[in-house]
Write a structure and sequence with these properties.
about 575 residues, alpha/beta, ABC transporter transmembrane region fold, Rossmann fold, 6-stranded mixed β-sheet, 4-stranded antiparallel β-sheet
């Protein structure tokens, strides 16, 4: 219950709803406890002496209690709906907002499917318990306690027999709780794994089709689905054992009470009405006891889900802002001093090792190197998506750790290697970093990115719909929209991570010319596979296994770097002119 208790503060904004909810939960129980007494009155004071006035009086009391209980239950339904959906809304919002604060390093450790399960299934399980489940458990406890009080008031000797059964029931319920919690935790883990399989398959459906791996994907899904089903079956078996045990205990109690109570009636110690009332209270108390094992099993499930929710909420962003963060304007000066960096899951191998270079404001820097040499990692460190392991990175002469992350990133335009677009209009996608941009500004950025013509050819133009992940656009069109999106924020530093790989040479040439004009006086980092797109760069860095193997201008590197010269000759031919 520790994890669930930590989520109870989510109910604080609804304290008046909770109070009304509790009132409407208690009132029907009280009305239900009135009915057996009224029935006893009817039998002993009405039926036996044949007094119709007493019969009508008892019947009216029972009818009034039923009406009050019905109205209270109706009000509780409204309160439950409000409280339940409010809790789910607030928990999902808190989870989603917290995930937005995560750095790339946090997200590297979390699979999308697992996060989706926490935001959907786990929240629903906890929501159900804190609203409907809590109400049912409270009502069950009140009915058991209230019926025990009434049993003792009716006949304390028979009540002692019932009381002797409660420790046995408590042992059974305690066993269910102890065994069920780890089982439910595994259930949610299996569901997360299943969701991850589905998410990966849908995201990579093109690869699946290209390699004809549909059968493999179906088998992989079935394996995880069987594991999930098997775990659910194990939980079902547990409940299948618990319910008959409690049911047997209840039936034994009823048989004992009927036998002993019958003896008491024939002996004149109890009236028929008292025995009927006693049995009614016994059923009122035993029925929720039978349900309580199922309810408490749902507590175990909700505790497991709450633990998984708190795993996300308790995760601190790996990139933390400084106590007094710097919030100035970015000039474009960038300095790397002996920077070392490695990913946690990379076996301790550094991706960057002792990297040092300096970039003056307004310079264009090109990064070349083989796949895995550290080019994308290097540019991701500039806006502090990750913190370095060793060394320092300075922007404007200020350590990136001392910048306010939002201020720094807001002035760095990123066109990442993996182009991401969102469902919405073309205009919304381009203006993603500047939602207040005018249509003219959006169009100017699109023209610079050579995207204006194909946008105007789309149905709706700039108000045309972009499907999720840009499914209705080609790779080149998505890249050009991404470039326009970065240009619109007028960044002090622009990062282009292989951002023209999907466009033709002519389009790339026009994009480069526009960038040269727009980014004049602004610093640009370009990761490129085509060497002809970086010939005019102020600096070219050649990365090899995380180190700078060569550094200089195009002409300098042709003279001094065998690696660069080899790349140049392979792409542009052997006729080299310096």
């Amino acid at each position: 219950m520790k994890s669930l208790r930590r989520l109870i503060p989510f109910a604080r904004p609804y304290r008046w709803v909770v109070i009304l909810f509790l009132f409407t939960d208690v009132l029907p129980v009280l009305m239900e406890l009135v009915a057996p007494r009224a029935l006893q009155f009817v039998i002993d004071q009405g039926i036996k002496p044949r007094d119709m006035h007493a019969i009508w009086q008892g019947a009216l009391i029972m009818l009034a209690a039923a009406l009050v209980g019905t109205l209270a239950t109706l009000g509780q339904g409204f309160c439950r709906a409000w409280l339940s959906q409010g809790l789910a809304f607030d928990m999902r919002t808190a989870l989603f907002a917290h995930v937005q604060s995560f750095s790339f390093g946090n997200l590297d450790h979390m699979q999308t499917g697992q996060l989706m399960t926490r935001l959907s299934s786990d929240v629903d399980v906890v929501r159900h318990l804190l609203s409907s489940g809590a109400a049912l458990m409270l009502r069950a406890v009140l009915m058991i306690a209230g019926s025990m009080v009434m049993l003792f008031l009716t006949d304390w000797q028979l009540a002692l027999v019932v009381l002797a059964l409660l420790p046995v029931a408590a042992l059974i319920i305690g066993w269910v709780l102890r065994v069920a919690r780890p089982l439910f935790l595994i259930v949610q883990q299996k569901l997360s794994a299943l969701n991850t399989i589905v998410q990966e398959n849908l995201a990579g459906v093109e690869v699946v089709k290209a390699f004809v791996r549909e059968r493999f994907e179906i088998d992989r899904f079935e394996d995880h689905n069987v594991a999930y089903m098997g775990q659910q079956v194990r939980v079902g078996r547990l409940m299948a054992v618990a319910m008959p045990a409690l049911n047997t205990l209840t039936n034994l109690g009823i048989v004992a009470i009927i036998w002993l109570g019958g003896l008491s009636v024939t002996g004149g110690r109890l009236t028929v009405g008292e025995l009927v009332a006693f049995n009614s209270y016994l059923m009122i108390g035993m029925t929720p006891l039978l349900m309580l094992s199922n309810m408490l099993a749902s507590v175990s499930q909700a505790e497991a889900s709450a633990q998984r929710i708190l795993e996300v909420l308790d995760t601190q962003p790996l990139v933390q802002p400084a106590n007094a963060p710097y919030t100035g304007r970015l000039s474009g000066q960038v300095t790397f001093e002996d920077v070392t960096f490695g990913y946690d899951g990379n076996g301790g191998e550094p991706v960057l090792d002792g990297v040092s270079f300096a970039v003056a404001p307004g310079q264009q820097v090109a990064l070349l190197g083989a796949t895995g040499s550290g080019k994308s990692t290097l540019v991701n460190l500039i806006p502090r998506f990750y913190d370095v392991i060793g060394g320092h990175i300075y922007v404007n002469g200020v350590n990136v750790r001392d910048w306010a992350p939002d201020t720094l990133r807001g002035q760095v335009g990123m066109v990442l290697q993996q182009t991401t677009l969102f469902s919405g209009t073309v205009r919304e996608n381009i203006a993603y970093g500047r939602p207040d941009a005018t249509l003219e500004e959006v169009m100017a950025a699109a023209k610079a990115a050579q995207a204006h013509d194909f946008i105007m050819a789309m149905p709706g133009g700039y108000e045309g719909i972009v499907e999720a992940r840009g499914a209705n656009l080609s790779g080149g069109q998505k890249q050009r929209i991404a470039i326009a999106r970065a240009l619109l924020v007028q960044p002090g530093i622009l990062v282009l991570d292989d951002s023209t790989s999907a466009v033709d040479l002519d389009t790339e040439f026009h994009i480069q010319r526009a960038l040269d004009e727009l980014m004049a006086g602004h610093t640009t980092f370009v990761i490129a596979q085509r060497i002809n797109s970086v010939l005019n760069a102020d600096q070219i860095l050649i990365l090899d296994h995380g180190r700078i193997a060569a550094q200089g201008t195009h002409r300098e590197l042709l003279e001094t770097s065998p690696i660069y010269r080899e790349i140049y000759e392979l792409q542009l031919g052997d006729g080299v002119t310096i």
